[in-house]
Amino acid sequence: MAELATVARPYAEAMFEAVQAAAGTETLAQVAQALDGLAAVSRDPAVRQLVGDPRLDVDQLGELMLSALPQQPGPALRNLLHVVLENHRLAALPAIAEQFQRLKDAAEQRAEALITSAFPMDDAQLEALLPALETRFGRKLYARVEVDPGLIGGVCVAVGDEVLDTSVRARLESMRHALTA
User: Fold this and answer.
1) Cα–Cα distances in Å, from 159 out to 84, 124, 137, 153?
2) From-to residues of CATH 3.40.30 in the chain
3) Tens digits of per-residue pLDDT, 135-171?
4) Which CATH architecture does the domain made up of 2-106 adopt?
């Protein structure tokens, strides 16, 4: 896993710089969305099987992958895909998309908040929680919500390497440690 991240970093950084240099052609959000789409396509077993097919060259495979996207990307992303395929780095495409998203978030001073809740959260609950989390973590956040009934109640929020755990499970564990100490 760490190896894919190491391989992906220069591709993501080069793509990020290319998009910023060509201001106005494609936005960071458009490229991030297209990269996510290509990452999803690259995970498809049928596409992975095509990678080793000698009847299909790099350009044909690239065009096939690009045809799966709802909107055709600009030249920077096309070039990136060509280089990735030419260097046999298709497995790194999801990591490239993830690292590009991190670079985009850093440039926009935003971060993803992984909110794990004991129960499903509706939009109103999420809208009420996000401002408090943005104040607590000191940056603009966008949320991804997961449900874990094992929390019993409350939420656990992870933003980067910072974690805020206000779940009932964490409180019970804290009380258990205090009683056994």
Assistant:
1) 30, 21, 8, 20
2) 109-180
3) 999 999 999 999 999 999 999 999 989 999 999 999 9
4) Orthogonal Bundle (1.10)
